[in-house]
Amino acid sequence: MTLSIRPLALTDREELAALVEANLSALEGGLSVLERRFPAGQVPVDLVAVDARERLVLVILGSGSNPAMLLQSLEAYAWCRENGALLGRLLPGVRIDPAAPPRLFLLAPRFSDSLRRTARYLGPLSPVLVECRCLEVNGERGICFEPVEGDVEAAAPPEPVPPAPGDGPRERVKQLVSHLERLSFGEAFR
């Protein structure tokens, strides 16, 4: 039997989302797709799923070279956290653990060093970075998922800063968004 494998360059985001959806179990077992192109505030989330433990999973596709992808994922995360009751109405009949924070997956052909480095320091808010390769195997389309190994877990966390009065998760998200905006601005001039 002859095996023919060739890389497949998918530039259409909808086509890529359909391929990811069709192969979602290869990303993680137990994931079930709930919606495609779900509007989480101002961020269109490519795929919204639920995992085996009834946690909401947000999958965002991108090029991986733009730090804005990271900022979008944090915005989608924050919107879902703040609108848990609304999610129950927007996704009727789905059991989602309201106490569990959403999980974030960013999928791209390759991630820039800048995006990887910044993701390391997001701590518990850090998305799972997964590089994906689209392939054609004997005339059939497929996708290979390669989690970015060790980036989040191996990174030494930044020195803890004692919380100031009134310094909670919302303030932490604001600080991270500010950092990402500065990073995005700096990338524009490279």
What is this structure, in a nutshell?
The chain has seven helices and seven strands, in the order E-H-H-E-E-E-H-H-E-H-E-E-H-H.
Can you walk through the features of this model?
The chain has helices at 13-22, 24-27, 68-82, 84-90, 113-120, 151-154, 169-188, and strands at 5-7, 32-40, 43-50, 56-61, 103-108, 128-137, 140-147. Helix 3 (68-82) runs antiparallel to helix 7. The model is unreliable at 150-162 (pLDDT under 50). With 190 residues, it is of the alpha/beta class. The chain is globular, with a radius of gyration of 18 Å. The chain has seven helices and seven strands.
Topology:
Layout: E1 5-7, H1 13-22, H2 24-27, E2 32-40, E3 43-50, E4 56-61, H3 68-82, H4 84-90, E5 103-108, H5 113-120, E6 128-137, E7 140-147, H6 151-154, H7 169-188
Parallel strand pairs: 4-5, 5-6
Antiparallel strand pairs: 1-6, 2-3, 3-4, 6-7
Helix pairs in contact: 3-7
Stated plainly, the CATH topology is called Trna Endonuclease, Chain: A, domain 1
What gyration radius follows from the Cα positions, in whole Å? 18 Å
**CATH class term:** Alpha Beta
The SS-based structural class is: alpha/beta
Helix content: 25-40%
Series of secondary-structure elements, N-terminal to C-terminal: EHHEEEHHEHEEHH
Low-confidence stretches: 150-162
- Counting copies of identical and different chains, the oligomeric state is single chain
Q: Helical stretch count? A: 7
**Beta content:** 25-35%
Number of strands: 7
Largest sheet: 7 strands, mixed
Q: Average pLDDT value?
A: 82
CATH 2nd-level architecture: 3-Layer(aba) Sandwich
